[in-house]
Amino acid sequence: MPAPTRRFQPAQRLRHKSEFDRVYRDSRRSTDACFAILTRNSGGSIPRLGLSIAARIIGNAVRRNRIKRLVRESFRQHQHELPAVDIVVNARSGARDADNAVIVRSLEKHWRTVVKQCAP
User: PANTHER family under this entry (predicted)?
Assistant: First the structure.
């Protein structure tokens, strides 16, 4: 049997302001020095990801894009474990100078928290 796909599909992205606002308005939170993760049950069948990586917090485009790539890749690898929730990842100042390993460990901790908080 073929392995389940682990692609990051366009349907797995939060795109519209109204989708982000819904998560901000009614969400569960998980925070540390690098990220604030907000989750809300979506009622859909797959987890969806939205990124909020502010220039005033992280800095230039190179730093922001590196963090976005790491978050997307971590989400892609863990999506099969996550419940059907909408997730917004806000970068915090600790992520600015953190190396890749610290960011990946932080995200793995957050994904485990999401699974615990949103388990059916």
Answer: RIBONUCLEASE P PROTEIN COMPONENT (PTHR33992:SF1)
